[in-house]
């Protein structure tokens, strides 16, 4: 029996490498077909069945009574043997690849067969049997058979294979709604009824159709709903971002240059004071061009950042000319999403109707409307940190930094350890920064944080040691994320941010940068 690899070659049915370490004599893995290898195959089948069922390494390992690291090693062996990644990380766990989905029926049958070997073939009476065996006679009532609908398909109902073939016949030049229907069908019914994630190219075309206004409302709901239920993958996210960036570039152009891309897409229920605006001003004061862009939903609070930015001297820009001019003269600008792309803005506004975060919420953080050296993101969930970074690598980004202790916007808290998940020259790098300082006692302030209080911290009219530490720490994180900075340089970034804070009210900007 052979298994077809993803690269088109064939090989014998999966032969796993032994789980045990090689012998001390230096001999490697046993040759295919040995008893040891046959034993390993059974382990791999049972492990793969658990992963297909749970779609989570930790939960599957718990069911199998294994350490998570041990199951991760078995998964690596499976990937090597099959020549396929088998699972892709998504915001909702592991998503099986089409190849893994095709294996699912055979894997389940084999796993059930192993279990069946250890099931008793004859029911054994309990030792304290109370019924006289002579009572065990069949009923004399002539009951009709179980009533069910006729087996097979309804009249005219196509089989999953026929649906799959129909989707494949939709031509690349078909009408937009037909092409979008094909992608929705792939998510839901292709591959024998199991569905699969979209490729980056499929996701890009699907989102481009939506942004062009050529999708039926039902299709928009079906696409985003099915991606939400399955969990978006990094290729899907990257494809959506490509379509979104092309859509924005059509009106904005691709000539705007910045040093730091700072997305700030937060919920209207986000009640933390936006100290990151003050931190961005410090970074601009150091001579770096900072483009903030975002929104606070489509509710009555949707213009929150548009309102507060001008109160601290940050220009609100709605077109390419204004953004370029602001970055050239003041080295900082805020661009509302509603101006960059009304379509994306309205897609986010669908949250009011569904009360769920769609894949658009994740993709918009990677919008990067200007050509920037690095991007700063905030993502509290581990799956989203990996998802954003993996998508950024697919997009060809060289540098980014995801702050792992906050949600939706990069605002650093220096009072507790923080994880930073970076791309440095295209390579993933994870850092844990210890707490940089003790948390000052809270400063009494009005319930909530009034605009006057928030402005007063910048001007010095209000002294709030904790807020100042957050601003300085956030500015240090942004400076540290610039290309050229390395791990030990965070202390230098923190010292520079301290200097910038002390000099913030001067008329002349400090022309200083992080060394490196």
Spatial strand sequence of the major β-sheet: 7-6-5-8-9-10-11
Mean model confidence by pLDDT = 79
Number of helices in the DSSP assignment:
20
The percent of residues in helical segments reads 40-55%
The Cα radius of gyration reads: 29 Å
Taken as a percent bin, the fraction of beta residues is 5-15%
How many angstroms separate the termini?
A: 57 Å
Contiguous low-pLDDT stretches (5 residues minimum) are 1-6, 11-31, 122-132, 146-154, 507-516
Task: Give a quick rundown of the structure.
The chain is of the alpha/beta class. Helices cover 45% and strands 10% of the residues.
What does it look like?
This protein is an alpha/beta fold. The chain is 45% helix and 10% strand. It has 20 helices and eleven strands. The strands form three sheets. Strands 7-6-5-8-9-10-11 form a seven-stranded mixed beta sheet, sandwiched between helices. Strands 1-2 form a two-stranded antiparallel ribbon. α1 packs across α3 (68-82), α1 (35-54) packs across α4 (98-117) and α9 (234-252) packs across α17. The model is unreliable at 1-6, 11-31, 122-132, 146-154 and 507-516 (pLDDT under 50).
Summarize this structure as a short list of keywords or feature phrases:
516 residues, alpha/beta, two-stranded antiparallel ribbon, 45% helix
Element layout with pairings:
Blueprint: E1 2-4, E2 10-12, H1 35-54, H2 57-64, H3 68-82, E3 87-90, E4 93-96, H4 98-117, H5 160-168, H6 176-188, H7 200-211, H8 217-230, H9 234-252, E5 260-265, H10 276-285, E6 290-295, H11 304-311, H12 320-329, E7 332-336, H13 337-340, H14 342-349, H15 351-354, H16 359-363, E8 374-378, H17 382-394, E9 400-403, E10 418-424, E11 427-433, H18 451-459, H19 465-481, H20 490-502
Parallel strand pairs: 5-6, 5-8, 6-7, 8-9
Antiparallel strand pairs: 1-2, 3-4, 9-10, 10-11
Helix pairs in contact: 1-2, 1-3, 1-4, 2-3, 5-6, 6-7, 6-8, 7-9, 9-17, 10-19, 19-20
